[in-house]
Design goal:
The chain is an alpha/beta fold. It is built from 16 helices and 13 strands. 45% of the residues are buried.
Length: 486
């Protein structure tokens, strides 16, 4: 007997707001679950069918389904599809925070606050799990050595690290960053241009609020980095896609379509998640346009420290002589994510205002931790650690490429990358990336579907595999699981 899908009736979406269409769809589905219209086990229409019924893009439906699965409102199984979770049996008595934006307003919350709730805070999986993207090898971190630096400031009260803070962060850490970035990324700046924050995400959140007003146009690569999209949406910006090809983001086309854009987010050294490098020609085009239009450029240089074969292309910031590029970095991938220490390199024109925002929103890391990182860098241990990790990640990358290339079907090409922590694998149309990811999760294998990173005209189909945190044995075992899931 064929499985019956429920019809989702009474769903109203408005392209003019409030919020993106996929969030509105999330709200509508949650509302039907909490009101009892949809019950446990009800099978929702396939994304292709629902997008046709609602006259919206399929990617919008996929994004909504993925969010609701991460929040455990929905589940999915091969051969069945997406259905209402059985883990919330008393749906009619669901807590108020799962209701729609209308309910939020009755509770006295702002729309800004309600934006955050749909993303939630999902539990972090095992940090050494194959193939978790963007996770450094925490077992290789020199914890004992770093602990001695941290204990210097944490074991005994010291006046200089016991105060509320310093303008822009711990002075010695800013000095070390100025030195390091000049050598590694060609960036010439002064300590006054550096602002220390709790993460690259904190920088994205701050800049999305400072550099543009609600309803301004912001440009974002397609496929995209989720943290950047989240920051822009929470700031109320109208996000437009910049398609990506072998030369990186298609700057010329995007600027022709949106000449009045206020802000653009780019990962020019290694596009996230396709790992393409923005060409020199496009870099020059972008900087020329920014000079003329006033466009602000957020450059996220998230994994440039891990180049395997050659020095990375110079940063976009190093080419900026007009003060339009904000460089964003962090220690989450070079040291540990749990440290929650990131930084921005700002043009002179933005330095004071951003420092004020950071100070008043209290998104500065603990001073003893900043001081320990500074001393760790000053004594040369940071660069030594980076060299070790670069060698280790190259070894794991090469093994993953070899395992995939020797066993995958011929219609799935495996393309090595020149550096980084993650490998994109584009799939042929007959494969369903999300279905494969769902199957892998049942084997405790974490992968990401490239379709979930898509929001423009091009919907990508593939797997995004992190290898930096995975040992050799688990890489081999993980590849065998992927083969079974194909």
């Amino acid at each position: 007997m064929a499985l019956q899908h429920v019809r989702l009736e009474g769903i109203t979406l408005n392209s003019e707001g409030p919020g993106p269409l996929y969030r509105q769809l999330c709200d509508e589905i949650v509302s039907q679950i909490t009101s009892g219209i949809l019950g446990p086990g009800d099978i929702l229409p396939p994304s292709r069918q629902l997008s046709k019924d609602l006259a919206i893009g399929r990617t919008t439906v996929i994004q909504a389904y993925d969010i609701l699965k991460s929040n455990m409102h929905l589940e999915s199984k091969p051969g069945i599809g997406t259905y209402v979770s059985f883990s919330k049996r008393d749906h009619k008595k669901a807590p108020p925070e799962k209701a729609s934006h209308v309910a939020d307003e009755h509770m006295g919350l702002s729309r800004y606050a309600s934006n955050f709730k749909l993303f939630g805070c999902s539990p972090e999986p095992d940090t050494q799990m194959a193939f978790l993207p963007g996770m450094p090898d925490i077992e290789s971190f020199p914890a004992d050595l770093f602990g001695r630096y941290l204990s210097k400031y944490a074991k005994k009260s010291r006046p200089e690290t016991s105060c509320y803070g310093y303008e822009g962060g711990w002075p010695k850490l800013k000095t070390e960053l100025v030195r390091h970035l000049a050598i590694s990324r060609g960036i010439k700046c002064h300590e006054d241009n550096v602002v220390i924050v709790t993460s690259a995400q904190s920088a994205l959140n701050t800049l999305s609020l400072v550099l543009a007003d609600p309803n301004d146009v912001a440009l974002l690569e397609n496929p995209f980095y989720p943290g950047a999209k989240m920051a822009m949406e929470n700031a109320g910006l109208r996000i437009k896609p910049v398609e990506v090809d072998d030369n990186g983001a298609d700057i010329e086309t995007a600027l022709e379509q949106h000449p009045n854009a206020k802000l653009i987010y780019l990962t020019p050294t290694s596009q996230y998640p396709l790992c393409k490098t923005l060409s020199l020609t496009r870099r020059k085009q972008l900087l020329k346009h920014a000079k003329k239009s006033g466009l602000w450029i957020m450059e996220d240089d998230y994994d440039s420290e891990f180049r395997f074969t050659k020095r990375p292309v110079a940063s976009l910031k190093s080419m900026d002589d007009q003060g339009k590029v904000i460089y964003i970095g962090s220690f989450s991938k070079t040291l540990l994510p749990g440290f929650r220490v990131g930084y921005m390199v700002l043009p002179d024109s933005l330095s004071n205002v951003v420092k004020n925002v950071v100070w008043q929103t209290a998104i500065e890391p603990a001073l003893p931790l900043q001081a320990a990182i500074a001393d760790f860098m000053m004594d040369g241990h940071y660069n030594k650690h980076l060299r070790r990790m670069r060698q280790l990640y190259k070894k794991r990358h090469d093994l993953l490429v070899k395992q995939l290339g020797s066993s995958f079907p011929r219609n799935i090409p495996i393309t090595p990358i020149t550096g980084g922590m993650n490998l994109p694998v584009l799939l042929a149309p007959e494969y369903n990336d999300q279905a494969i990811v769902d199957l892998l999760s049942k084997e405790n294998i974490t992968a990401r579907a490239l379709s979930g990173y898509s929001f423009g005209d091009t919907v990508y189909n593939g797997l995004f595999l992190g290898f930096s945190c995975v040992n050799e044995a688990d890489i081999k075992a993980g590849v065998s699981h992927i083969l079974k899931a194909l």
